[in-house]
């Protein structure tokens, strides 16, 4: 009498626990690793780390007494893959928070995100020629631009996190670090989205000259030329200028500021430089108050800062922010989020949020009887359920199941039952 027995998940578990580590139910077949060295132009691959394909499963069919037909169907299926892995981004955010707490590097992280995004040109449609938040700042070709002096230090701080989370793109990591630094310094929550795709090589870096200068001949016109090219307006220019409430200017990098002041001589971090505010690691509206008053020679005021209270359109917003920190925080959060998206190519196209993404549903409990398919090919849903059961037992797509003696005994019993049926010894 012919009988059929479907044991897809049990067969996979037996292969793993018996020590056949090369036989896996789901084996990764395409991992794309990102470039490894932050300042090396030779490392250029984008970080798109996900399972591209896998073997689909195994059917065990017993067609007649005394004969066994094993059909291992190895068909490929596509898995949804984003530019960055959301779970890895969440973990990377925690590592960035710890980095900020220990290294006090909030200002340079904000600057890193701004400078990667700030090369965007709204008049160029083609990606990545249009510039923007695409991770190109990791390459020497762009790092050596005059406006980026010192940013190699930010890359060195972030590189261990990038190495740890290969499923996160540089473009997302830079913007994640920038927004997290604002929030950890006491600033507003930035409504960020993620999924930015990385450029792949230094030849895709924008030309030098797209970022603003600190002391141009006509500061107001210069700010408008640069930020209007990005698609930003006067309110956003002033709000983003308020980011100078964090950090210091160092003459050896920018040509501006004093070598050291009473506010910077003891750090934290490397001592030196000249800050715009007294508490230069606290995000608040003191920048606008201090620039307006200009009564402390140890606080920095650049030509592009002073013009905020001289140009009639800029002054309207600068005066408002000096009086109303809540309004500043609201407008800054919107402007920062807009800046961080400029020029980016997202996968998925709409991007995704780390704070509003619904939790992943728990996999349905595996019941082998549901997957008894006889001669039929396993459906995609069936493959996913088998995979979920495999992972629930302790396995994963890139490692075999750990040894489990109870499971071994159950497998032996199942195998003996099959052999008994085949030999006729009931």
Automatic annotation (TrEMBL):
GO CC, alphabetical: chloroplast
EC number(s) recorded for this UniProt protein: 1.11.1.11
Coarse class of the protein's main subcellular location: plastid
Record bears the keyword Transmembrane helix: yes
Catalyzed reaction equations: L-ascorbate + H2O2 = L-dehydroascorbate + 2 H2O
Pfam families registered for this protein in UniProt: peroxidase
Transmembrane regions: 405-424
Region feature Disordered, mapped onto this chain: 248-271
Domain of life of the native organism: Eukaryota
The keyword NADP is annotated on this UniProt entry: no
Compartmental location: Plastid, Chloroplast
UniProt entry keywords in alphabetical sequence: Calcium, Chloroplast, Heme, Hydrogen peroxide, Iron, Membrane, Metal-binding, Oxidoreductase, Peroxidase, Plastid, Potassium, Transit peptide, Transmembrane, Transmembrane helix
InterPro entries to which the protein is assigned, alphabetical: Ccp1-like, Haem_peroxidase, Haem_peroxidase_sf, Peroxidase_I, Peroxidases_heam-ligand_BS
CDD domains: ascorbate_peroxidase
GO molecular function: heme binding; L-ascorbate peroxidase activity; metal ion binding
Start and end residues of each Plant heme peroxidase family profile domain: 132-360
One GO process term, biological-process aspect: cellular response to oxidative stress
Cofactor(s) the protein needs: heme b
Role summary: Plays a key role in hydrogen peroxide removal.
Family stated for the protein in its record: Belongs to the peroxidase family. Ascorbate peroxidase subfamily.
Protein name per Swiss-Prot or TrEMBL: L-ascorbate peroxidase
Biological classification of the source: Eukaryota, Viridiplantae, Streptophyta, Embryophyta, Tracheophyta
């Amino acid at each position: 009498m012919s009988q059929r027995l479907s044991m897809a998940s049990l067969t996979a578990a037996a292969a793993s626990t018996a020590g056949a580590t090369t036989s896996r139910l789901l084996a990764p077949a395409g991992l794309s690793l990102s470039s490894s060295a932050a300042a090396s132009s030779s490392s250029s691959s984008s970080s798109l780390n996900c399972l591209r394909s896998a073997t689909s499963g195994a059917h065990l069919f017993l067609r007649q007494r005394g004969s066994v037909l094993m059909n291992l169907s190895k068909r490929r299926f596509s898995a949804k893959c984003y530019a960055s892995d959301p779970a890895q981004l969440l973990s990377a955010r925690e590592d960035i928070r710890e980095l900020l707490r220990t290294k006090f590097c909030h200002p340079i992280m904000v600057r890193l995100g701004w400078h990667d995004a700030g090369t965007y040109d709204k008049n160029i449609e083609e990606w990545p020629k249009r510039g923007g938040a695409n991770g190109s700042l990791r390459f020497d070709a762009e790092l050596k631009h005059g406006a980026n002096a010192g940013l190699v230090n930010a890359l060195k701080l972030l590189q261990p996190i990038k190495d740890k989370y290969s499923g996160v793109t540089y473009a997302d990591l830079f913007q994640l670090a920038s927004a997290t630094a604002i929030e950890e310094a006491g600033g507003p929550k930035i409504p960020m989205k993620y999924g930015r795709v990385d450029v792949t090589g230094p030849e895709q870096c924008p030309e030098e000259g797209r970022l603003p200068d600190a002391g141009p001949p006509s500061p107001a016109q210069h700010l408008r030329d640069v930020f209007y090219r990005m698609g930003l307006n006067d309110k956003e220019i002033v709000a983003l200028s308020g980011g100078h409430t964090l950090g210091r200017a160092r003459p050896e990098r920018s040509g501006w500021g004093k070598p050291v002041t009473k506010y910077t001589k003891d750090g934290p971090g490397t001592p030196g430089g000249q800050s715009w505010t007294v508490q230069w690691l606290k995000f608040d509206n003191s920048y606008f108050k201090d620039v307006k008053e200009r009564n402390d020679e140890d606080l920095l005021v650049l030509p592009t800062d002073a013009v905020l209270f001289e140009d009639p359109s800029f002054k309207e917003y600068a005066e408002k922010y000096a009086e109303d920190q809540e309004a500043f925080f609201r407008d800054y959060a919107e402007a920062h989020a807009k800046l961080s998206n400029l020029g980016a190519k997202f996968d998925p196209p709409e991007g995704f949020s780390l704070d509003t993404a619904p939790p992943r549903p728990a996999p349905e409990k595996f019941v082998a009887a549901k997957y008894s398919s006889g001669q039929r090919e396993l459906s995609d849903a069936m493959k996913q359920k088998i995979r979920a059961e495999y992972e629930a037992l302790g396995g994963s797509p890139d490692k075999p199941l750990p040894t489990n003696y109870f499971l071994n005994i159950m497998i032996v019993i199942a195998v003996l039952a099959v052999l008994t049926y085949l030999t006729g010894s009931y």
